[in-house]
């Protein structure tokens, strides 16, 4: 076992992941970073002092692509943040493992933002090619360029099922159960994508939307 560091924004996300993990895995750590890019950046700064292990950023996310449904699992093949793209070369490997576990999986770009995305902005960002948004993966991806990286988001809200609706609570509970199923798959992925398989890649620019992000 090569070890694994799992980062989740919310305590409820971290708890769900821990509950799903097999017992007696001393090399697997789950940490709650706090919500948003600033807190994620502070957590990322601590990565420099950590052993070189695979890093997974996991939690709830919002869909931009109208084809995604609540409960779907998006595995990022790249994380976009502040005009840079951080590739995730192990996305296909992880997606295959999640599909074998019976989870509905999609692979595509994930965009990190600093606020909830709604309505017209959701449509505008979808037009830029990203499939989902979160608020933490970007800073952590930036700090993990020398490590195998996974960014996984369980979709809670979509263009057709936005937040702040009566059904949101039920969708959140279902997403929490899905997070529990993701944990063991991440352990298997980390064993396959350990440091000896790392292929560091520099983040590359991507085209910003015509209207700059806040």
UniProtKB/TrEMBL annotation:
Residue intervals of the Nucleoside phosphorylase domain: 28-158
Matches recorded under Pfam families: PNP_UDP_1 (PF01048)
Superkingdom to which the source organism belongs: Bacteria
InterPro entries: Nucleoside_phosphorylase_d (IPR000845), Nucleoside_phosphorylase_sf (IPR035994)
Span list, region Disordered: 193-214
Residue intervals passing through the bilayer: none
Protein name: Nucleoside phosphorylase domain-containing protein
Organism: Nonomuraea coxensis DSM 45129
């Amino acid at each position: 076992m090569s070890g694994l560091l799992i980062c989740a924004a919310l305590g409820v996300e971290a708890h769900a992941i821990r509950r799903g993990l097999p017992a007696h895995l001393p090399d697997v750590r789950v940490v709650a970073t706090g919500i948003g890019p600033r807190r994620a950046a502070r957590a990322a700064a601590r990565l420099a002092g950590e052993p070189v292990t695979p890093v997974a950023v996991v939690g709830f996310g919002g869909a931009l692509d109208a084809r995604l449904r609540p409960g779907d699992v998006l595995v990022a093949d790249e994380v976009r943040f502040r005009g840079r793209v951080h590739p995730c070369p192990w996305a296909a490997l992880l997606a295959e493992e999640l599909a074998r576990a019976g989870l509905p999986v999609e692979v595509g770009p994930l965009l990190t933002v600093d606020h909830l995305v709604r309505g017209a902005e959701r449509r505008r960002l979808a037009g830029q090619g990203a499939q989902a948004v979160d608020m933490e993966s970007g800073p952590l991806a930036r700090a993990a360029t020398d490590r195998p990286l996974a960014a996984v988001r369980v979709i809670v809200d979509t263009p057709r099922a936005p937040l702040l609706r009566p059904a949101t609570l039920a969708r959140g509970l279902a997403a929490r159960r899905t997070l529990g199923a993701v944990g063991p798959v991440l352990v298997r992925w980390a064993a396959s994508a350990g440091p000896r398989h790392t292929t560091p890649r520099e983040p590359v620019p991507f085209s910003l939307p015509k209207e700059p992000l806040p």
